[in-house]
Each structure stands twice: as structure tokens, then as C-alpha cells.
Amino acid sequence: MVLTVSEEVREAIAANRPVVALESTIIAHGLPRPRNLQVALELEAAVRREGAVPATVAVLDGRPRVGLDKEQLERVAGGDGIRKLGHRDLPLAVAGGESGATTVSGTALLASLAGVRVFATGGLGGVHREWTVTQDESADLGLLARTRITVVCAGVKSILDVAATLQRLETLGVAVAGYGTDRFPGFYLSDSGHPVDWRLDTPGQVADVMRAQDALGGPGSALIVANPVPGDEQLDPEVHARVLAEALRACEAEGITGQAVTPFLLDHLVRRTDGASLAANLAAVRGNVRLAARVAAAWAAGE
Ligand code: PSU
Ligand code: MN
């Protein structure tokens, strides 16, 4: 098989021990270097502290990998020749022998092929604000409509049109629940300003929903567990609104399109908030990784 699952991850899956998939685009293209490598290592350590095995996903030299060693993580974080790979890019990268970091869509596909059911990230991709003109909707949404995986995230990136993204998730039939909240989180912000219809309060409740998905059968769609960044670690909402408006104007003025849009906006926010957006982003991801490990444990315990 073309997919390479690390020995540690393979053993954990075989023994029904908790495993958490982690995406690599946030490392390679979503965070500034060299901080990104530290973060990658820190996130893996946080998963381990909760008693689960981390499985960071990437493609190296044409080989899709679930579970990276330190040297492989260093390559991803180093960025040289590391492309950004959504799920549609995977066969091209494999056939071409290329290396790349996987987005939520690329990671969710490879993780589920490897048999990993729980995945942690920062914020999902979604519908961009200029959608009526650009038709830019992240491939994350379509893939999550077709993949049975639980994604713990802090909502969708606030650079997006959040209301439109929530609507698309509804249309596509993807289950969404707030974790410990009735509000949909706003990535850098604890509250996006939009409600969610469902709320889950414990890892055990999340695992129960996953079991109900399997018991019901039907199309293999995802479960999105939207876990807010703690209020005292969020980005100041006023700063967020001001800097984001500026970033969106810069993106348009510079003619940035396609895959480059998300990294451009995230980088702009980090620079223009003096790193405050980075701190909030990291706080969100850390919380998601910890929760995902607890969900994976509850899931493994019940099987
Ligand atoms: N969340 C972050 N940083 C990121 C991303 C999400 O905190 O870099 C990445 C994810 O990999 C997500 C991707 O899948 O951005 C979406 O990109 P696009 O809009 O091009 O689909
Ligand atoms: Mn896009």
C-alpha cells in the first residue's frame, strides 16, 4: 500500500489505544518559522501527556505518511519544497514524488484511510468572504461531508464568511456541535457571533455520538467538535475586527488567489497584531489537541 503508517501508530491502532491525527499545513504554511517546529513538537507532546499517540500527517518524497518522526517533522517545518496538499493534490504528489503538508482535507482523508478516527486542528477552511466572485470554498467542507472522522477545531478560520460556512456544513450534512458552549467558536475568538444547534460537554458524550454515527450507518460524514479558545486567551475582538479588515484589503490589493489566500491572511494577522493572533491561534490549537486526545481515549475505551 502506498500509505505508510508509522510503527507506533500502527501498534496503537491494532491494540485499540487512543490515536490523534494532526495536520501539517498549519505547521508548514500557517505558522511562522522557526516557531512552527517547536509548536509541532509541543502539540505531539501534549497528545502524549493525555495518554494518546500523535499521528502527524504529511507526504514526503511521494509517500503519504501517518505518524512522523522528529526528522520528518523537521522537514515539514523547514518548508523547502513543501507544498500545500488538499485531498485532490494527493495523487499528483504521490505520482510526482513530491513532498507536502496536508490541509484538513488531505489529513482527514489519509488519517481515515489509516484507521484513525479523531483529528485535531486549529480552524477549518470554509467559504471565503468574496465567494460570490471567487467561488473560493475550501475543499475541507466537501471532504468532511464524505469522511467518517471526528475533527476537534476552534470553529472555522475567522478570515472566512462564518455564516456561509455554517450554512454549507448544514447543506452538506456535516454534524456540528459546540463543546461546552451553545455558540459557534470564532477561531481567534471564543464566539463567532453565531449559535450552534447542538452542544456536547464531555469526551464521553462525543464518543457516544461517534458510536451513534456508526450504528446509524448512512453516508460517512464527519463530526465537527467546535471547541472555543478560552475567553482569557482569545484575541481582543476589537483588534481582530480592525486588523482583519486591513488584511482582507491587502489580499485583494495584491491579487492573492487560490491556495495562497489563507496563508497570506494568517501571516498578515500575525504581523499586524504583534504576535497576539499567533498566541490566540496556539491557545486554540493546544486546547483542541488536548480535547482530541481525551475524545480518542473515550472512543477507544468504549469499543
Ligand atoms: N487553521 C490554522 N492554520 C492553517 C489552516 C487552518 O490555524 O494553516 C489550514 C488548514 O490546513 C486548512 C487550510 O485545511 O488552512 C485551508 O486552506 P484553504 O482555504 O486553501 O482550503
Ligand atoms: Mn481556498
TrEMBL record:
Spell out the family assignment given in the record's similarity comment: Belongs to the pseudouridine-5'-phosphate glycosidase family.
InterPro entries in the record, alphabetically? Indigdn_synthA-like (IPR022830), PsuG (IPR007342)
GO MF assignments: hydrolase activity, acting on glycosyl bonds; metal ion binding; pseudouridylate synthase activity
Q: What is this protein called?
A: Pseudouridine-5'-phosphate glycosidase
Q: Which organism is it from?
A: Streptomyces griseomycini
Q: What class of enzyme is it?
A: lyase
CC annotations in GO: cytoplasm
Q: How is the cofactor bound?
A: Binds 1 Mn(2+) ion per subunit.
Cofactor dependence is on:
Mn(2+)
Which residues hold Mn(2+)? 136
Catalytic reaction list:
D-ribose 5-phosphate + uracil = psi-UMP + H2O
Binding sites annotated in the UniProt record for substrate: 84, 104, 138-140
Report the active site residues: 23 (proton donor), 157 (nucleophile)
- What Enzyme Commission number(s) appear in the record? 4.2.1.70
The Gene Ontology biological process annotation of the record reads: nucleobase catabolic process
Biological role stated in the UniProt entry? Catalyzes the reversible cleavage of pseudouridine 5'-phosphate (PsiMP) to ribose 5-phosphate and uracil. Functions biologically in the cleavage direction, as part of a pseudouridine degradation pathway.
Q: Which UniProt keywords apply?
A: Glycosidase, Hydrolase, Lyase, Manganese, Metal-binding
Give one Pfam hit by family name. Answer: Indigoidine_A
Quaternary assembly: Homotrimer.
Record has Metal-binding as a keyword = yes
